[in-house]
Amino acid sequence: MWKLILLELLKISRRPRTYIAFAAIWAIVALIQLALYVDGPKYMEFFLKDVADSFDIVGNPLNGYFVCFVILQTLLVHVPLLVAIVSADMISGEANLGTLRLIMSKPYSRTNILLSKFAASTIYTLILLLWIAFTGLFLSVVFFGTDGMIHAKSYEIIVLNGNDIFWRYLLAFSYAALALTTVASLGFFFSIFSQNSLGPIVTTMSVIIVMTILTTLDIPLFQRIKHFFFTSHMIAWKGFFEMQTDENGTALPGTIRNLSAILRSGVVLLGHIVGFVGASIFIFRKKDIVN
Amino acid sequence: MMFRKFFFIGIAIVHLFIHPAIAQDAAALLEQVKSKLNQVEDYQANGTIKTDVVFMKVPVAPIESFYVKPDRFKLKRSNGVSLLPKGEAGINISSLILAGDYTVLDAGTTMLNKEKMSLVKLIPNGAESGIILTTLWIDADKHVIRKSSTTTRENGTFDLEMEYGKYVTWGLPDKVVFYFNTKDYKLPKGITFEYDDGSKPLELPKNKKGSVTIVYRSYQINEGKGKIAFTEKKGKR
């Protein structure tokens, strides 16, 4: 099994499109960092316009932690596409090249082959996430320094202490790994139906875009059904940047406001992964690959 | 008829003599407060800050404050950012009392927390001041300001309450509570793209008063540390 995974990783590493994702992430991150370096105060002003008349900000709110938060928020829309480029190509790419039958002639079960392919795409996703962590968090901290973080929500502002942020990022990135693996499993699921890569990649992205738009639209009908979309649960990483409060309303550092909701969302994503991969195996085992 | 005429003239004469005397008392009382505050050339103080605004979730945080006579004051927070209400004169009463040019009016006495206080009003001389009126609740025995209410041109009215302890001889409070009005806060969900964990959004009360409480643990007075803070790096406040 491990040999199969290594083989799949080797295949992924040989494809030029694999590196497009790393280059694209570096470009997006660098552009956001440049923009915030030049026009950061104006960006902050926009978010804090309702309180700017009444409050002064003491400290350095435009620091690496804040920049990383902006980057993660922006990349949330783009990274699924980059993940889909590889995961949605895992089976369909073989079918397109005509190598699918050749692989199936090996002395491994279809389940093992499929699981190794999914494991390889998951490893690729995790490496991509590490790249985001390096460029988005590490480089932002190097360029912008560290301080407390202002997290502006639609109805409240959360201010986190500087020493209360890094562990939240570790959890947020771990959760993001789960979220992106869900996207990888969806792309993987679509890839078993197609003879070319483009179809599953576009279908995966379309599903994510439509669900994200429906989640974001503040319309009661969509608000009621949004919990059924896995995209609503993909952004639960933001929950790690919220704190519990005591009876006086004072925020408590070192706490997470609604950990059970985040865990629930995590279970939903995990269910999707198991569902998509299970369905892929179930369908692929019965799939006619001869014709 | 004649009696009523003399009565009113008498009242007017008494008022003419007594009222300046009262105003003079208020000015003298304020001078005593000022002389206490004037002992402090500069200070560096350590303490904690607690922000209580309904739409803000802010942890209690350590702060340092620096003051140089008469009106240089700044707050510094290590390892974090703070959102502090505008109106620095409000947070540091010394800046207002020692640097301001104003007319002093006596407003009698009143009770504050079951203690008798002298009420003094300060009206700034000159139109350029951002402050319209300041009312002070002065503890006439200890010669310290226990409460102030300041109405500004741009930032509304803010109140300041002070509690004194071991630094009362310098006129420096152990605890300062700054009350202010807050505005609405709202951002579109499409921009914040936030996670809905199922919890209900906050219901903002109609009376949107916020407060900032600073509790000072210690002061280092007249050791030049306040001055150093201003010469090292120009602060935000």
What's the arrangement of secondary structure elements?
The complex is a heterodimer of chains A (291) and B (237).
Chain A: H1 2-14, H2 16-47, H3 49-52, E1 55-58, H4 64-87, H5 92-97, H6 100-104, H7 110-144, E2 149-152, E3 157-160, H8 166-191, H9 198-216, H10 220-225, H11 230-234, E4 244-245, E5 251-252, H12 259-285
Antiparallel strand pairs in A: 2-3, 4-5
Chain B: H1 2-37, E1 42-52, E2 56-57, E3 61-68, E4 72-76, E5 82-85, H2 88-91, H3 93-99, E6 102-112, E7 115-124, E8 131-139, E9 144-152, E10 157-163, E11 175-181, H4 189-192, E12 209-221, H5 225-232
Antiparallel strand pairs in B: 1-3, 1-12, 3-4, 6-7, 7-8, 8-9, 9-10, 10-11, 11-12
Identify the strand order in the major beta sheet of chain B: 4-3-1-12-11-10-9-8-7-6
**Which descriptor suits the 3D outline of chain B?**
globular
Structural class of chain B: alpha+beta
Helix/strand order of chain B: HEEEEEHHEEEEEEHEH
Estimated helix fraction of chain B: 10-25%
Strand proportion of chain A, as a percent range, falls in 5-15%
Tell me the distance between the termini of chain A: 27 Å
Q: How do the strands of the widest beta sheet of chain A line up side by side?
A: 2-3
Instruction: Count the DSSP helices of chain B.
Output: 5
Question: How many strand segments of chain A?
Answer: 5
SSE class of chain A: mainly alpha
What integer value in Å does the Rg of chain B equal? 22 Å
Greatest chain-chain interface? A-B, 56 and 47 residues
Task: Return residue spans of chain B where pLDDT drops below 50 for at least 5 consecutive residues.
Answer: 14-21
Into which percent range does the helicity of residues of chain A fall? 55-70%
Span between N and C termini of chain B? 64 Å
Q: Give the C-level CATH assignment of chain B.
A: Mainly Beta
C-alpha geometry of chain A: elongated
